[in-house]
Design goal:
The complex is a heterodimer of chains A (199) and B (164).
Chain A (H helix, E strand, L loop, with lengths): L2 H13 L3 H20 L5 H18 L9 H19 L7 H9 L6 H4 L4 H19 L3 H11 L5 H8 L3 H19 L12
Helix pairs in contact in A: 1-2, 2-3, 2-4, 3-4, 7-10, 8-10, 9-10
Chain B lengths: L1 H8 L5 H13 L1 H17 L10 H8 L17 H22 L2 H18 L5 H14 L7 H15 L1
Helix pairs in contact in B: 1-3, 2-3, 7-8
The chains are: A mainly alpha (199), B mainly alpha (164).
Chain lengths: 199, 164
């Protein structure tokens, strides 16, 4: 099973009436969608509103989603259209297709343009999360750090990682899980998981 | 279950595991938190922005006011089933139309009418007087049937009233 198939399984759950399964898709894609929307709607609070609206529109349109494209590609289109409509409604110029292409061509790692309107609190929180993850990564045993790096940064499949690390796929799976769990333990005190944040 | 969850984050869950993992995610809040944390870790490592944002609970609150999404199950049929179903329907349609068009219709209709008339004749209701005679004869000849006089009268009167 690949990432697309995993998404399809979640989409089918939503289409069968499981609303919570949609929450799992929101968790998975919210930061990617927010980053995309932030390229059009610069204010962080407004960008969040637009991203929320895009998810709601996607949920409403999900019965007609046939899986011909990947779920994220489909969500991406809804996000761009929602942001453009928002700009028109707020009498701001929506970017042309060429401008959109140019923005897409920019490096995804380039975030200076996006962050100049962030509040100090938001910047601090982001920095704390990033520092905690990076420190926890540095403290991992080498085989765990290599496995999770090959997966998360290089995007290799478990089979490819098994070949690179010369170990069984089951070992790769176990190492990546142990790496994530070790980092997550250090991350949890920073994250708000109170009842009002749960769904 | 968290090992399987971690594999699901990567789209590497075995086919036979996915149902169990998704069901566990539905009922277990800690697993959903772990799903969130594992995705956040990946986003940090890939240098994603917006690390401090989590719009999930806001979206889910709004979704609670939405009608539940339900796609017709036929739409989720596997692709290979769709052309087969269409083909089967077409063949059935052609067969029915062909049978109606090619079969000799007149003799069949006449035969049906004849049968109907026969059946109608057989169920002609008896006249009330015939019925009364029949009942009296029946009661007189059935051994062991001990109808009292009152009962006989009630039955006879009832038949006569029905005949009016």
């Amino acid at each position: 099973m690949g990432d697309r198939e995993a998404d399809r399984a979640l989409v089918e759950r939503v289409q069968a009436g499981d609303q919570q399964a949609f929450g799992l898709l929101v968790v998975k894609y919210q930061r990617k969608l927010l980053r995309l929307v932030s390229r059009l709607v610069r204010d962080p609070a407004e960008a969040e509103d637009v991203a929320q609206e895009a998810f709601i529109k996607a949920y409403r349109a999900l019965p007609s989603f046939r899986g011909e494209s990947a779920f994220y590609t489909w969500l991406y289109r809804i996000g761009v259209n929602t942001a453009k409509n928002w700009l028109i409604a707020h009498r701001r110029r929506a970017p042309t297709a060429t401008e959109m292409d140019n923005m897409e061509a920019e490096s995804y790692g380039e975030t200076d343009l996006l962050r100049d309107v962030d509040t100090p609190e938001r910047l601090l929180m982001s920095k704390q999360i990033a520092d905690t993850v990076n420190l926890a990564m540095a403290e991992l045993p080498e085989e765990l750090r290599t496995a999770v790096t090959l997966r998360e940064i290089e995007g290799l499949s478990y089979e490819e990682i098994a070949q690179v690390m010369d170990c069984p796929i089951g070992t790769v799976r176990s190492r990546i899980f142990r790496a994530r769990e070790s980092i997550a333990q250090k991350l949890r005190p920073l994250l708000d998981t109170g009842p009002d944040r749960r769904w | 279950m968290k090992t399987e969850l971690s594999a699901l984050v990567d789209g590497e869950t075995e086919s036979h595991e996915i149902r169990a993992v998704l069901s566990a995610l539905k009922s277990n809040v800690d697993l959903r938190d772990a799903w969130n944390q594992y995705h956040l870790i990946g986003d940090v490592l890939r240098g994603e922005a917006e690390l401090d944002s989590d719009i999930t609970s806001s979206v889910m609150q709004r979704l609670a006011e939405e009608p539940v999404v339900l796609a017709p199950s036929a739409l989720r049929q596997a692709n290979w089933q769709r052309p087969l179903a269409a083909l089967a329907a077409s063949v059935a349609g052609v067969a029915v139309v062909g049978w109606l068009a090619l079969s000799p219709s007149q003799p069949r209709e006449q035969a049906l009418i004849a049968k109907t008339e026969t059946a109608t004749q057989r169920v002609q209701p008896m006249a009330a007087s015939d019925m009364q005679e029949y009942l009296l004869a029946h009661q007189a000849n059935v051994p062991g049937l001990k109808l009292q006089g009152g009962s006989q009268n009630i039955r006879t009167v009832s038949v006569l009233e029905g005949g009016r």
